[in-house]
Amino acid sequence: MISQGWVKKTLESPDYVEDREDGTQHFIKKIPEYGNRWLRVVINVRIVPNRAVTAFFDRRLRRTEL
């Protein structure tokens, strides 16, 4: 389960941010408390207020360093 604290930490101090053409921003942060896995939080920035779309541990980033 993804804790709200991890999501908040990812949004406030991401390790990496990706701007996508679909109007979303992807905030990515390594979570040491969860085996150093990468948490990705996707935010729709085209609407006001901005809206969280999803949050998940991204397995594609498991073996990579950003």
Structural overview:
- The protein has one domain (4-61).
- Helix content is 14%, strand content 41%.
- The protein contains 1 helix and 4 strands.
- A 4-stranded antiparallel sheet has the order 1-2-3-4, with helices on one face.
- The radius of gyration is 12 Å and the shape is globular.
Brief account:
14% of the residues lie in helices and 41% in strands.
Distance between the termini: 23 Å
- How many β-strands, per DSSP? 4
- Poorly predicted segments: none
CA-based gyration radius: 12 Å
Could you say how many structural domains there are in total? Answer: 1
- Approximately how much helix is present in the residues? 10-25%
Strand content: 35-45%
Keywords:
66 residues, mainly beta, four-stranded antiparallel sheet, 4 strands, 41% strand, globular
Question: Helix and strand layout, with pairings?
Answer:
Blueprint: H1 4-12, E1 16-19, E2 24-31, E3 37-44, E4 51-57
Antiparallel strand pairs: 1-2, 2-3, 3-4
